[in-house]
Amino acid sequence: MMKKISKEARSALADRTKLVYAGRDPSDQYGFVNTPIYRGSTVLSPSMEVLLARTGRYTYGTQGTPTSRSLETAWSEIAGAAGTVCVPSGLAAVSVALLSCLKAGDHLLITDSVYRPTRVFADGLLKRFGVETTYYDPTIGAGIEALFRPNTKAVFTEAPGSQTFEMQDIPAIAEVTHRHGATLLMDNTWATPFFFPPHAMGVDLAIEAGTKYLSGHSDLLLGMVSANEKAWPDLHATYSAMAICAGPEDMFLAMRGMRTMLLRLKEQEKSALLMAEWLQARPEVSRVLHPALPDCPGHDIWKRDFKGSSGLFSIVLKPASQKAVAAMLDDLALFGMGYSWGGFESLIIPFDAKPYRTATAWQPEGPALRIQIGLEDVADLQKDLDAGFARLRATV
Ligand SMILES: Cc1ncc(COP(=O)(O)O)c(C=O)c1O
């Protein structure tokens, strides 16, 4: 690690500099710059005393390797956390975080705009284990207090919602949650700690699907949960009990992605904003859902609490048939159609949140599309969508 720089000096470094040095110690790796992929289950002990007391630096593959420690240390530094666990997917990060702070008989509050598989986890597995969930309007703010019950133990937020882009007043929700002695969770994948430092803003457990911007290359699945001092012991105990550890190759690739993460994010932020503004002026588009645009709902909260925006946003088209939308999307040359986001390539998918919303109604005036902007040239992307809009207009 940066042996010549004190802990205080390290925390004063700019994010760009932190990213270059975080989580690596060349002196521990024969001078090689990066921590390599350590594979393995057994860790040989130098003596029976060390084996029995479990005082070795590493004890067993599921309990950590130099590769996992590198990534966990780096992510804790980036997120401003007391500790981080790395798990095999973003959804696994959601589930291990929730399991770390809930037990049978507890009540959980989840934003209605949440990533849908989080809802499936709560309505299925958590319910089966005796946890009751209530969904809330993402714009509720401090009004969430009215939904608290004596057994409410956790609030799960996501800002903005990764399809419909409602913002949430995280500091207001944090204040209420903590006054009631409950745990505040946030899926912070969209903003990442660079654009929203979760723990400094009052979040106890922050989830990041490393599959998205940390990877940046659509070639791995990974999740991180970072915790503040209060939430860390239960998170670590739950993670250890489940041994839900990420694969070494995926963690190595994530470390490689991390070095360029902020540069990619900033470029994707810039391109996405240009695309969003361009789409706002298109006659086929009714609304653009992007919190960094001044006329989007939630913009004031975004401006107050966030330091940037990422490359993911949605649009609502003016009324059009499914056939017309298919004509637009099927023949796009640059935009791919597929799930996930955060990679170097642009993506577009249709979505409909209506069937699964329970606390709020999703009633768009036309078909909705979610757009992920990659690292391509903006003019090329506009040309591709322009041709798509011509096909949309020509089809009834
Ligand atoms: C907001 C959000 N959280 C979590 C996840 C889950 O990540 P993973 O695909 O790695 O399970 C996703 C994936 O799309 C997501 O969009």
SSE layout and pairings?
Elements: H1 7-11, H2 15-21, H3 48-53, H4 66-79, E1 83-87, H5 90-101, E2 107-111, H6 116-128, E3 132-136, E4 152-158, H7 170-179, E5 183-187, H8 192-195, E6 205-209, E7 223-227, H9 232-242, H10 248-259, H11 261-280, E8 285-289, H12 299-305, E9 312-317, H13 322-330, E10 347-351, E11 368-372, H14 378-394
Parallel strand pairs: 2-3, 2-4, 4-5, 5-6
Antiparallel strand pairs: 1-7, 6-7, 8-9, 9-11, 10-11
Helix pairs in contact: 4-10, 5-6, 5-9, 13-14
This protein binds pyridoxal-5'-phosphate (PLP).
How would you describe this structure to a colleague?
The protein has 396 residues and is an alpha/beta fold. The chain has 14 helices and 11 strands. α5 runs parallel beside α6, α5 packs across α9 and α13 packs antiparallel against α14. The chain starts with 6 loop residues before the first helix and ends with a helix. The mean pLDDT is 97. The protein binds pyridoxal-5'-phosphate. Pyridoxal-5'-phosphate binds next to α5.
